[in-house]
Amino acid sequence: MRTIDLRSDTVTHPTPEMRQAMAEAEVGDDVLGDDLTTQRLEAMGAERTGKEAALFVSSGTMGNLLAILSWCNRGDEVVLGSEAHVLWHESAGSAAIAGALLRTVPNDDRGRLNPDDVEAAIRAYRSGVSPTGLVAMENTHNRCSGAALTAADTKAIADVAHKHGLPMHLDGARIFNAAVALGVPVSNLTADIDSVTFCFSKGLSAPIGSMLCGTQEFIDKARKWRKMLGGGMRQVGVIAAAATVALEQMVPRLAEDHVNAKQLAQGLVGIPGISIDPAKIETNIVIFEWQGGNHPEFMAKLADAGVKASSSGEPKTRMVTHWGINGEDIQEALEVIAAVAKDAMGAKA
């Protein structure tokens, strides 16, 4: 039985061009500053985001943690959204390793933050108070159906942070999806923030790696923290070569994933037991509610029938389109989902 894997865009495999680039990569010891392939990739990352410098890291989680370590003192607070990936899916590294607390403000259904909420959450240093050290946002927003935040959405929060003398970090794991969906350069979406992380191993389809970008001073500090975390990789150009291909070749095709996600969302409408608003689907993440009973059982039956999905917390099911999934796959997945839903609703009746 064929499997259609929609759990995440992290399940993509490297393209043939990536595999060839990895085999032929020029490498050196990156900790000693000798890996020219990685250095070229870091220069590309900085240029794409409009920043002075960049640092290649193993994952988006590491990139976000390095940002917190570099911007905050132990005992500082990070003001961020209630649905932030840093809060939900990064193993509490901010607390366990950086010694930083997370102070949340509500995300709306598109992942945006209210500037007044952010302002109210910011706390200055005084006795008995954990002061704010950083403000953070996310684009696209993973838990808000992959919503793409505009430059204006980001600027409104960055202005509040900068008014209080605070840096602004953007978890831009899928920032290229946002740029493609909005029809603007990535640098347009990162112009007002002080640091940004983006991933190569999601929609861009590289096997490993993320990039942290900011000022040269910030990246110098982050590089030291990366070494302390064991992230100083040696002949990492083998991996950086695939990420370079991802930046050069895989960005425009993200639009195909967005089309497939919209096809999936529109096809889910009217399936018994499923609740979804297709208008909320802007990029490659589709989240819907299963209202037909036992959610884990529904997910298991989907997998048994050949469609893999992930959960965003009961009763939400999350499906992500990516390279290797085409329109025919989406149509087949919809037929499977409809059949599983019909059986479940019939059994419930």
Low-confidence stretches: none
Oligomer: single chain
Distance between the termini: 29 Å
The major pleated sheet works out as: 7 strands, mixed
Amount of beta strand = 15-25%
* Overall pLDDT: 96
Count the DSSP helices: 14
Order of helices and strands: EHHEHEHHEHEHEHHEEHHHEEHEEEH
> Would you tell me the structural class of the helices and strands?
alpha/beta
Gyration radius (Cα, Å) is 21 Å
> Helicity, in percent?
40-55%
Number of strands: 13
Give a topology summary.
Layout: E1 4-5, H1 16-23, H2 36-49, E2 53-57, H3 60-71, E3 77-81, H4 85-88, H5 93-96, E4 101-105, H6 115-121, E5 132-138, H7 151-163, E6 168-171, H8 175-182, H9 186-190, E7 195-199, E8 210-214, H10 216-228, H11 237-249, H12 254-268, E9 274-275, E10 285-290, H13 295-304, E11 307-308, E12 310-311, E13 316-320, H14 327-348
Parallel strand pairs: 1-11, 3-4, 3-5, 5-6, 6-7
Antiparallel strand pairs: 2-8, 7-8, 9-10, 10-13, 12-13
Protein architecture, described:
The protein has 349 residues and is an alpha/beta fold. 42% of the residues lie in helices and 16% in strands. The protein starts with a strand and ends with a helix.
